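Re-running SDR family oxidoreductase to confirm reproducibility after the cluster update. Everything else is unchanged from the original entry.
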Amino acid sequence: MYPTFDLKGKIAVVTGASMGIGYGLAKALAHAGATVIAAARNLPALRQLCADIQQEGGTAFAVSLDVTNVPHIHAVMEQIAKEHGRIDILVNNAGLGANHPAVEVTEADWDTMMDVNLKGLFFCCQAAGKIMLKQGFGRIINMSSQASVVGIVDHAVYCTSKGGVNQLTRVLALEWASRGITVNAVGPTFTYTPGTAERLDDPAYLQGVLDRIPAKKVAEIKDVAGAVIYLASPAGDMVNGTILLVDGGWTAQ
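Result of re-run:
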């Protein structure tokens, strides 16, 4: 028996799908055969994403989702399950990043990032998890970061939020493993997207990053998508509670 990465017939929800890595993950999941539910606050961008997917022969639907509104999260997940019959895959991609020296972090800075990166992610897991538990099947992939396992200067809040994602991933994997659900995380290094281009197109900044990556290159969205598809597919059935780092060797040092 050979491993398969085929996602045909699966319903995959991707949060934060309106831009950057989320946009690319949604397209990659559709290419692998999944019906993609693209969720975010920016509906015009989601509609463009769905049009792109459909033009490539895939199937996708746009859904408005605010991950800082817990009742809304539950209502949206329930509506998706009602309309599509189930939720097989959840990719928790919605997230924020910001640079703040620790002494300058305000309470608002802390709350804003934690509300999205950790609190919102947990309640998306909970809402989809309730549906998956009834089904007896589910694949949850949480987007973490290499910054979840190493310190990054001026990223105290971000690193803390992603470290929390890792621990949450492990606990949910333990709680739900016997019910047919896997919960894993993917931790990318610096990844080239329209949102990171301003920094990574600066030769000095880029060199500082490459000095820390043994592979001597930053990640592309396709690199992250490969990890997500693996964990979502039958090939990843026995992988549970792990943090899959896509970092070119950064954290091996």
